[in-house]
Amino acid sequence: MTTQHVTVSKETNGAVIATALLAFCGILSETAMNVTFSHLTEVFHLSLGSLQWITTAYLLAVAITMTTSAALKQNMKERTIFTLAFAFFVAGSIVAILTNQFWLMIVGRLMQGVGTGMAMPLMFNIIAERVPLERIGFYMGIGGLIIGLAPAFGPTYGGLMIANFPWQWIFIAVIPIAVLAYVIGFLFLENSRAEKQKRPFNFLSFIMLVFALSALLLATSSLEAGQMNWLYVVIFAVALAIFIILALKDANPFLDIRLLGNPLVLFGLLPFAIFQFVNLSVNFVIPNFLTMGLSVSSSMAGFSLLPGTLLGSVTVPFLGKLYDEKGPRLSLYAGNVIFFLSMVVMSLLTKSLVLWSIIVIYIVFTMGRNMAFNNTMAAVQSQLPREKSADITAIFQMIQQFAGAFGTAISAVLVESGGDVMTGSQHVFFLMTVLVVLNFIFYKLMFKQFSTK
Questions:
Q1: Are residues 333 and 242 in the same domain?
Q2: Which Pfam families match (predicted)?
């Protein structure tokens, strides 16, 4: 398949860059915090299990906000959504900068998460709707490259900041990047000229989803104390049931969960979620494994993730082009094989790992993930009508962020309950390896749906 004759406007290019840069700021501040926990235990006098809410609360806010992206797209202009995303992110950053109280830090992180949760789906919607199908894979890769640079630099950035400046500088230094993103968006982002059909927003349904997702994370975190808090489980079950009933009754819900009844969507979504669950679990564990288990400095612990994530991010557009030219099967299966092999090594050799070996394994880990992750959503969208792209983006991006939050919470519980950091980390790696095996099954079931198109 050739893509050379297909052009994309400078306005679309600028809009993709602007929205991706704003999302970059949120992800940078998220991943930078993972290497600061050993220091923040002394600042806030809290355990690792409590501090992980700095990351988990942010990811939860991103996930919940992303559920509204399809409704926002139908009811608001793109420039308005982008401005609100910028305002929430900067306001949340200022709250986090000015506070020395943990609960206010969480409020700031929630606000940052809302901003990121608005910016990221906006970017993918612009790509899905304004980029020709022949170049979807490449542009998904470009968007993934910009966003992917954030976790590449995040841990190293966080480690250097915490070693040389007060921790608040992690948030201070990203604000100029957010301002740059807003300026680019102001210059290039155009509102869609297509007629929009207003989509009613069911607030009760939204609140039930918020309760369900929050309760599930709280129930998971309660395991750190050695037992499940069943009140959270009941709240989760009841709220989820009400949300599903309301969503199925609504002719035009803010999150169209009916799409999950399509096996193509379901079996594409499951491996997509597993990739993010495993990715953020490992990103949470490795810095803490190095700082608390091997007494490596915060700056070096952060650096351990830089080569892999940076190399992986740089190759994302080329992997997108491979998808465009060779189709999805090669990218998805080969990527999962590489991802699986890296997890096998990490789980079997956990207690023998040292800094250099973690760097090498993480390079392989990230290359495998990047080969399959974004291309999974592109593969699903390529088989569905374009008018469904906003709903598909909302579902995939919401599940991606919640899977990351859930993975972080599960990893914190397993590390805390392992007796020591090394044993707990090995338990995490074993669980992740099992989950990656399931991806092969889900991909096989997903590709069966391709043959019926």
A1: no
A2: MFS_1
- Same domain for 391 and 266, yes or no, is yes
Task: Give pLDDT, residue 453.
Answer: 43
What is the reported pLDDT for 3? 45
Q: Specify whether 179 is located in the same domain as 99.
A: yes
Output phi, psi for 373, to 5 deg. -65, -70
The model's pLDDT over 186-212, given as tens digits with 9 standing for 90+, comes to 999 988 776 666 767 788 988 998 899
Domain assignment present for residue 196? The answer is no
Domain-located, residue 439: yes
**Tokens 């007494």 sit at which residue?**
295
Per the structure, the complete domain to which residue 352 belongs is given by 10-190+254-450
Compute φ and ψ for 327, nearest 5 degrees: 90, 175
Q: Report CA-CA distances (Å) from 29 to 51, 155, 235, 238, 308.
A: 15, 9, 31, 34, 19
Cα 160 to Cα 147: distance, rounded to the nearest angstrom: 20
The answer to whether residue 3 is domain-embedded is no
User: How many domains is the chain partitioned into structurally?
Assistant: 2
Q: Which two tokens stand for residue 335?
A: 């990527």
Q: Report yes or no: 89 and 182 within 8 Å, Cβ to Cβ.
A: no
Which residue blocks in 251-354 are alpha helix, DSSP H?
263-288, 298-303, 306-326, 328-348
Comparing CA positions, the residue from 366, 353, 238 lying closest to residue 290 is: 353
Length of the chain (residues):
453
Q: What is the pLDDT of residues 384-442, one digit of tens each?
A: 887 777 788 778 877 887 888 788 888 888 888 877 889 999 999 999 999 999 999 99
